[in-house]
DNA sequence: CTAGGGTTAG
């Protein structure tokens, strides 16, 4: 008995409080007038009065009381939220979700939504599994629980906790709760934004399995995700899935697919893009300005600005008006090619149409100047921006910094960094990457490492590109083994090595004459889910040629073509210098080398 | 909650 304990310990005041509490509780639970008084105080939000009433009561017991009584669920929630703040106590998950359950039964969904929104923001300590346990024991209506879980997933996703949203989605399946597209579509979309494509595929497959009828938007998001991952075949298969579900593709579906083909690094990609366009028209879907913009940008990035100009003309003949995006793609394409005269014509044309160049238009122009070693012109355009009422953004500064670095003017590049900070623009990872690359090119790896340390202090984390720069720098100095250690370090930090990472390492080993090590890197790359690309083949072909293994180089060349990869200028140069000049005629279709 | 344009690494 507590009474005895208290007497033994001589803690008389505690004993008194204990008895008063007990008495108050008993009074409260036996008297209905008291219950309605409390409810009334909660309803009117008379918190200070309620606090006086509660002096002798256990706040947790009151919540329990409200839940078991006929109290209005909204009042219970109001009390729950207030008492959490007031007494700094966290009610058990079970009571919390019982409250939400009663709200769901009363169809007060917006209350649940806002509660869960705060809940996932603040309650960092609860695991998804403990929440699911609380939900399943806290309420008996399967339907109400499903709605709560649906809103929980949505709350996680909206608060940028996609991984938790994904976990909740999976657990919902284990518990058999039925989710809806209201939470699944934002989840799919968030997974695509974070490039978590394999997780996205899991969600998509589960949606079909659990009969959460995917909507047009679900399909479009999934197609976009698969395109971003380069899985174009799977993306076309989704179109077939749509037919099964009786959902018709719309202009966005086709545009997404066309863009996917445009950005794919394979032979005949623009042909496939064009074929998809024809298929779209055959299915009665009319191309819009976005369709044309995608094709124009695709041709520009393919190094075929004249084809882009033809599409541009076609777009206008179909009565579609070019917009800023159209002009930006074309101006960017022309500037990268150094065709500033033609770019200027388009620039004036867009202004004549009443379209205003924006920060991206300027960035394209400045980038073109920088890439063509015209730093003075770049700087002039940069200075023109504020006069035209266009603010520089972090990308503008990064382009200029990179331009100065590549022109060998590192000091000027660092000066630009000072300027941007003075104007309240924070350097980001790319800013540091440009500078680090500049220092590496100069051979000052010491300073590059110091900059990397500085990033940590500014709450910036080195990314894949940072590591790629350092790895490549080490490899080109013949320190491939050191570079391999960086590969391990980036994996430890959860960064996924890219094609560039592996290709630099292979190049490093090839230049050291260590083909075996280079091939081991390729194996590791494939285990990491990356297939050899054009650069991989170029590196390896060159490596084999240098060792005089022309037959093996030839095999690689054929393998690359069989995979539909497009040989680039580098491929031709390697083959010409290393194979043809040594009297070896590559056993591949000759027309490919007529460039 | 769905599609298009600009920077850094091979």
TrEMBL record:
Repeat in keyword set: yes
Q: Which branch of life, at top level? A: Eukaryota
One Pfam family hit: PPR_2
Ranges occupied by PPR repeats: 180-214, 215-249, 250-287, 288-322, 323-357, 358-392, 393-427, 428-462, 463-497, 498-532, 533-567
**Which keywords belong to this entry?**
Repeat
Q: Which NCBIfam families match?
A: PPR
Protein name in the entry: Pentacotripeptide-repeat region of PRORP domain-containing protein
Q: Which organism is it from?
A: Hevea brasiliensis
């Amino acid at each position: 008995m507590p009474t005895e304990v208290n007497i033994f310990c001589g803690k008389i005041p505690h004993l008194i409080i204990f008895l008063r509490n007990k008495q108050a509780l008993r009074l409260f639970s036996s008297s209905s007038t008291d219950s309605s008084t409390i409810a009334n105080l909660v309803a009117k939000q008379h918190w200070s009065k309620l606090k006086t009433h509660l002096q002798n009561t256990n706040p947790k017991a009151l919540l329990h009381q409200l839940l078991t009584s006929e109290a209005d669920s909204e009042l219970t929630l109001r009390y729950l939220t207030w008492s959490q703040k007031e007494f700094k106590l966290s009610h058990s998950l079970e009571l919390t979700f019982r409250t939400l359950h009663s709200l769901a039964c009363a169809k007060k969904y917006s209350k649940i939504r806002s509660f869960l929104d705060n809940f996932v923001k603040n309650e960092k300590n609860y695991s998804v599994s403990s929440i699911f346990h609380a939900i399943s024991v806290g309420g008996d209506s399967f339907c109400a629980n499903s709605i709560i879980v649906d809103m929980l997933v949505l709350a996680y996703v909206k608060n940028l906790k996609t991984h938790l949203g994904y976990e909740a989605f999976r657990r919902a399946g284990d518990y058999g709760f039925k989710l809806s597209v209201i939470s699944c579509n934002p989840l799919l979309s968030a997974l695509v934004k974070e490039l978590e494509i394999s997780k996205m595929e899991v969600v998509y497959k589960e949606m079909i399995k659990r009969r959460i009828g995917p909507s047009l938007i679900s399909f479009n998001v999934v197609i976009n995700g698969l395109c971003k991952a380069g899985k174009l075949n799977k993306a076309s298969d989704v179109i077939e899935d749509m037919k099964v579900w009786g959902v018709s593709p719309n202009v966005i579906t086709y545009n997404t697919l066309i863009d996917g083909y445009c950005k794919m690094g394979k032979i005949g990609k623009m042909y496939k893009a064009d074929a998809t366009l024809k298929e779209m028209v055959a299915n009665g879907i009319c191309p819009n300005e976005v369709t044309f913009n995608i094709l124009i940008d695709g041709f520009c990035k393919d190094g075929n600005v004249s084809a882009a100009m033809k599409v541009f003309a076609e777009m206008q003949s179909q009565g579609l008006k070019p917009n800023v995006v159209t002009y930006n793609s074309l101006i960017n394409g022309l500037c990268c090619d150094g065709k500033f005269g033609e770019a200027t014509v388009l620039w004036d044309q867009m202004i004549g149409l009443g379209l205003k160049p924006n920060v991206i238009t300027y960035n394209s122009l400045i980038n073109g100047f920088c890439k063509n070693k015209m730093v003075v012109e770049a700087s002039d355009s940069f200075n023109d921006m504020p006069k035209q009422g266009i603010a520089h953004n972090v990308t503008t500064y990064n382009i200029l910094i990179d331009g100065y670095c590549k022109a060998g003017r590192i000091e000027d590049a660092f000066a630009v960094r000072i300027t941007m900070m003075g104007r309240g623009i924070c350097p980001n990872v790319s800013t540091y990457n440009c500078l680090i690359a500049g220092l590496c090119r100069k051979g000052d790896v010491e300073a590059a490492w110091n900059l990397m340390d500085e990033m940590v202090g500014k709450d910036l984390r080195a990314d894949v590109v940072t590591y790629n720069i350092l790895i490549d720098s080490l490899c080109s100095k013949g320190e491939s083994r050191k570079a391999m250690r960086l590969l391990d370090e980036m994996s430890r930090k959860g960064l996924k090595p890219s094609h560039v990472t592996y290709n630099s390492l292979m190049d490093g080993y090839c230049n050291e004459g260590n083909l075996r090590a280079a091939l081991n890197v390729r194996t590791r790359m494939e285990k990491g889910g990356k297939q050899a690309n054009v650069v991989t083949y170029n590196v390896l072909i060159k490596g084999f040629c240098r060792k005089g293994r022309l037959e093996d180089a030839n095999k690689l060349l054929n393998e690359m073509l069989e995979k539909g990869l497009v040989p680039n200028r580098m491929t031709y140069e390697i083959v010409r210098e290393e194979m043809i000049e040594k009297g070896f005629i590559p056993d591949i279709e000759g027309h490919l080398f007529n460039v």
